[in-house]
């Protein structure tokens, strides 16, 4: 395989749900037939499908996995799997007008789902014996279910493109009926050794079964890791993520489309700060491989293909110090542990982190003083209650409080701007927004403001108004 000629491109779930936009804006665009190749597409499941397979990402409403994992649900997961067959074949019905192609697509996904159903019934039966514990197998079940979504969208896209005269090739990394479990890099090498990029267009599942177990580390972010490793292993010239929006100076739905500006350039450090807030341009661990191998990453808007998008590289620093983006996270819980015995006693923080780690609760920021440690966590109320219960057992003499807050962050590749903190605080004070906590580190790539959840949107508008809008003319997009 010739290196440095091809791109590796990831298409998100919302974009995947609009096949015509994907075909016309991403896959074909204004290319002639000879120029369609030298590209690898890593695809997500259609919008909403992974929520049905696992659990709803935002509300936590149970999908097939959550029902199966809940011992009390009994057969509810089986009924949910039956509903899923209808949901996915209905998607096929919207995509394929040709009854023969629809039948082929339906057969493919029904075989997968019924295979999984049989496997789960057998597992449930096996675990009815005391020697086998269901908990030991749940991660494998989660991976097997997640892979259905990407197999469905990748198979359909390849089939549809073939019908339209493009030599697409379905590359199934989900491990369905594979005989051996390989490390991820080895699996990818094996998969792409057989592909001729000069005349084939690989449509690749975003989920890859491998020895490392992608969901153990990345959970729902697994497709970004697959995308990143495909780019590294095949030595791509550039990696591209297609989203349904631009990577802009703020959320246009909050600030107003007329006031935000798309970012022309930024660096992986900024991408990491966004990921920390749950607004993933790219998962930090996925970005690391591309940064180390000097593969630039471009974030593009599916619905504006003529726009050059945002180019992210490891070495970029803005020409002059400035804020590039205002971003944030709502629904954050502040978990505060106040204990008089903490003062001068090392190790308290480690014990708190052990509890967060046990419940797989991610924190995006923290602050400490002599006797108080507060972690700001992005999690559900159910998980936070479990964490608090465990913390009370770990620190019986401590006072533990929780509060729902929002984190709003000013981010940039170089924010060494004199007076930036004073202007930010004044902008929030002018809007009568109380700052509950404030974090600014020496690296000068972000400042975080913790505010009441009700003030979230107002805070983003205020900070964007004072830190970015006066300089909008300087953000004129330079073709990257």
CATH class of the largest domain: Alpha Beta
Q: Compute the number of structural domains.
A: 2
Q: Number of helical segments?
A: 17
Class per helix and strand makeup: alpha/beta
CATH topology of the largest domain: Carbamate kinase
Biggest sheet descriptor: 8 strands, mixed
What would CATH call the homologous superfamily of the largest domain? Answer: Acetylglutamate kinase-like
Described by the principal axes of the CA atoms, the overall outline is: globular
Q: Gyration radius, to the nearest Å?
A: 24 Å
Which percent bin holds the helix content? 40-55%
Distance between the termini: 27 Å
List the helices and strands and how they pair.
Blueprint: E1 7-11, H1 13-16, H2 19-28, E2 39-43, H3 49-53, H4 64-69, H5 76-95, H6 99-126, H7 138-163, E3 168-171, H8 184-193, E4 201-205, H9 214-218, H10 222-233, E5 238-243, H11 252-255, E6 265-267, H12 268-276, H13 284-292, E7 297-301, E8 310-313, E9 325-338, H14 348-358, E10 362-368, E11 372-378, H15 381-394, E12 399-411, H16 420-430, E13 435-440, E14 446-452, H17 456-467
Parallel strand pairs: 1-2, 1-5, 2-4, 3-4, 5-7, 6-8
Antiparallel strand pairs: 7-8, 9-11, 9-12, 10-11, 12-14, 13-14
Helix pairs in contact: 5-6, 6-7, 8-10, 10-13, 12-13, 14-15, 16-17
Enzyme class: transferase
Organism: Marinobacter flavimaris
Catalytic activity: L-aspartate + ATP = 4-phospho-L-aspartate + ADP
């Amino acid at each position: 395989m010739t290196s440095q000629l091809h791109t590796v491109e990831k298409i998100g779930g919302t974009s995947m749900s609009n096949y015509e936009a994907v075909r016309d804006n991403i896959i074909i665009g204004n290319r002639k037939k000879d120029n369609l190749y030298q590209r690898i597409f890593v695809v997500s499941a259609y919008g909403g499908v992974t929520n049905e397979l696992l659990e709803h990402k935002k509300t936590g409403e149970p999908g097939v996995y959550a029902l199966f994992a809940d011992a009390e649900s009994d057969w509810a997961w089986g009924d949910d799997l039956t509903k899923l067959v209808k949901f996915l074949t209905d998607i096929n019905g919207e995509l394929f007008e040709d009854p023969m192609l629809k039948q082929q697509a339906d057969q493919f996904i029904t075989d997968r789902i019924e295979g999984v159903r049989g496997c789960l019934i057998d597992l449930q039966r096996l675990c009815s014996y005391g020697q086998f514990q269901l908990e030991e197998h749940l991660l494998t079940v989660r991976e097997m279910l997640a892979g259905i979504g990407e197999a469905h969208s990748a198979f359909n896209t390849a089939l549809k493109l073939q019908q339209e005269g493009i030599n697409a090739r379905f590359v199934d990394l989900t491990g369905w009926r594979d005989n051996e479990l390989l490390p991820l890099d080895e699996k990818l090498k094996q998969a792409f050794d057989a592909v001729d990029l000069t005349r084939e267009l690989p449509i690749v599942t975003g989920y890859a079964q491998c020895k490392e177990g992608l969901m153990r580390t990345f959970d729902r972010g697994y497709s970004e890791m697959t995308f990143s490793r495909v780019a590294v292993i095949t030595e791509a010239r550039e990696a591209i993520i297609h989203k349904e929006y631009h990577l802009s100076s703020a959320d246009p739905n909050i600030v107003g489309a007329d006031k935000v500006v798309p970012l022309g350039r930024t660096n992986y450090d900024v991408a990491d700060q966004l990921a920390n807030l749950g607004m993933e341009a790219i998962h930090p661990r996925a970005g690391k491989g591309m940064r180390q191998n000097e593969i630039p990453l471009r974030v593009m808007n599916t619905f504006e293909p003529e726009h050059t998008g945002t180019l992210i590289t490891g070495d970029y620093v803005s020409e002059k110090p400035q804020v590039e983006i205002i971003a944030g996270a709502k629904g954050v819980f502040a978990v505060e542990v106040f204990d008089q015995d903490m003062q001068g006693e090392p190790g308290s923080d480690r014990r708190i982190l052990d509890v967060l780690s046990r419940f797989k609760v991610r924190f995006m920021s923290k602050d400490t003083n002599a006797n108080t440690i507060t972690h700001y966590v992005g999690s559900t109320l159910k998980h936070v209650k479990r964490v608090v219960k465990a913390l009370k057992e770990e620190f019986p003499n401590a006072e533990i409080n929780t509060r729902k807050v929002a984190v709003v962050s000013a981010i940039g590749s170089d924010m060494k701007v004199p007076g930036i903190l004073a202007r930010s605080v004044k902008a929030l004070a002018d809007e009568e927004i109380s700052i509950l906590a404030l974090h600014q580190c020496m690296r000068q790539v972000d400042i975080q403001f913790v505010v009441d959840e009700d003030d979230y949107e107002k805070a983003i508008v205020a900070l964007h108004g004072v830190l970015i809008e006066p300089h909008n003319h300087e953000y004129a997009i330079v073709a990257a």
